Amino acid sequence: MVQTCGQMPCFSDSLYFVDTHCHFDFPPFSGAETASLARAAQANVRQIIVPAVSADYFPRIVDLAANYPQLFAALGLHPLYIAQHQTADLAILAASLADKTDKLIAVGEIGLDLYMDEPQLSRQLALLHAQLKLARQHDLPVILHSRRSHDQLAAALRKAALPRTGVVHGFAGSLAQAQAFIRLGYYIGVGGTITYQRAQKTRNVMATLPLSALLLETDAPDMPLAGFQGQPNRPERAANVFDVLCELRPEAPQEIAAQLLENSQRLFRLPPVKKFTS
Description:
alpha/beta, 8-stranded parallel β-sheet
């Protein structure tokens, strides 16, 4: 399938999309993995990174990555589940990272969230710092969640000074905050928020940032795109996000597609897809 931006062909047969953030271990994908991956491939989404939210999900995500060439695993303890995480979960994460295979490519989803009623910031920070330390130890990039916490997160990342850095996913902060992360060597995740006309701040940020700092993502089944409200988000809709990004950016679609792919491969050390199977 040749993806288009409006009526313009976007890229050659050697280019494809990577959904760098999809909770493929959740419904509606669990139990329908083969069909879901086929739908993604039809939209030229050829690789999908699956981040964990808690230790309970680690085995399933590792198995998914082992059984499907298109899937890659990230393991971490999500800040939204701070009340559920146990001290032992960090040891489980450490052991899982020590047993990593080539399909385990990141620590995530980790980060900070101050949008909750009881954020327990000190506990979130302790958990974040412990996981950043594990990422450094295992030479892995990080996939970062941040809501109303960009400044605190940037401070934590500055202190950690990870050599492999990572991505601030689903970014909806200010241009200055995005630039602060980029100066630290981090990428910015571009998702479905930009498909909403009312999200002018985020749309302007993604139009302004260096293309070399952007990654494509869906956060499926969360974060539905404009026109799909009330439906589970899906990895194939990374192509829709790309279309809108093409409308916002000055570069040609071919250049945008090539740079997004290069960024994904550089950060996560993803192998190239050498032959399309559908």
